[in-house]
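Q: Protein A?
A:
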Amino acid sequence: MLRTEVITEGTLTCFPSGLTYDDGSLVNVEVSAVVFDGQRLILASDKPIPGESRSAAFAFDLIDGLPDPDSHRFLTAEAIRRAVKYEDFALTVDGRYILATTGFDRIDDESHDLNAYNHLLIWPVGDPDRVQVVDPDPRDGVEGSLELRRKLDDAIGVPYYKIEGLAAVPSRPDLGEESDGLLLFGVREQGRAHDDFEYVARVVGVHYRMTVDGNLEFVDELCERYRFQPSEYAGVRHICGLSSLEYDPYNDRLYLMASFEIEDEEGEQTGGYLWSMSLADLSSGASPSIVEDAHGEVLEFEHKAEGLAVLDTERLFVAYDNDRDMTLGRIDERDEREACEAPYTVLRIID
């Protein structure tokens, strides 16, 4: 059982204050994905950030373990700007490439109008301009990871789903697995339609091999690899859906984060929880352990935890997507954040 303590909390300014869309509505940052590549923290909003020199993905250098606000820059390669609704990032097992997934939660069977929501991207660490689309439609000029979309359809097996987790973990040669890694996708929602679904914590995955041109190819069938029930854990107060996956190469463990968003007589409530497990437990289907706070109580995030990054052997970065909720709670002495600000927490693993 892991225990953690809060090192620091704060907000990141992700674009100019007061930025608006063409219709005059205020742009609200909703960070849903984060990864640390060894030098910089890369984050993404699941809503577009307008402007020719902007995108929904942006980066900060880390200085003394914290994001440097003066180092902010957008990732502006065309494929990165084109994709919509980013939900998670991951590093490949060798640490040389970054992967980014969108939600895959909508598609138009009659046209390509919604292809932007169906992307898995890859680029070398430190060189996002060399981004490529993974598993695209074989027809030239058709944008998006549409072959991967078909594989996800088959593996998940329902008309509607939303991908919110992504992680690459080492293969298990002792189990006869010969590949560069196992790519895991976390399913948060599944059901008949976007307004008729249940929250789940389900993982589907496929083994991959890196290609000579810096892309990846799948070497076996995408299928279910794991699932668990967050609500069965003592201390979990609400129904949750998986919101992030993160592999910790320093400790050879997988983190699974889940969040909730409910409306009751007290108004809207959001929050989340964190679990950890060894890769051996992942392979065997054993239950993950819920992460605790410094007092030995279940760690419950005050905000809707959507992104998780491993910074080093003992520190974790948690990013929140509070949608239109502007309250900051204990993160800041101010009552509310600006629409351009993303709240975050840095945790230390203490045992």
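Q: Protein B?
A:
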Amino acid sequence: MNIALIAHDKKKDDLIKFVVAYKHIFKEHSLFATGTTGLRLIEATGLEIHRFQSGPLGGDQEIGAMIANNRMDAIFFFRDPLTVQPHEPDVSALVRLCDVYSIPLASNMGTAELVAKGIEKGDLDWRKVSGNKGADDNGTS
């Protein structure tokens, strides 16, 4: 599976702790992350992670493009709901794409644990089998 790991500044430590705790799951998959988050995750875990630009510089949009091209299977995006983000339109667009293309999106520790355990059990394998195309049955919007 292709999995994106994203975190706002005040949530980066939480995401790092989470990925360290579930490293046995994440190491089995292809990982993608936005700039600083990816660097910090690599340093903390030693996992191989493809890094995009930072979120405000287009990283969220790069991940969004992967979603739109049926190349992303799950998103772990630890968001800070109490701080205004300068790139909020990009964040909203990414969340919208997850909804349009039925991509599991974990935005907090509780949901992230459920999604990670689902990935571990194979509960998201339907994404591989169905070739999830997005908004409708023939893959068009």
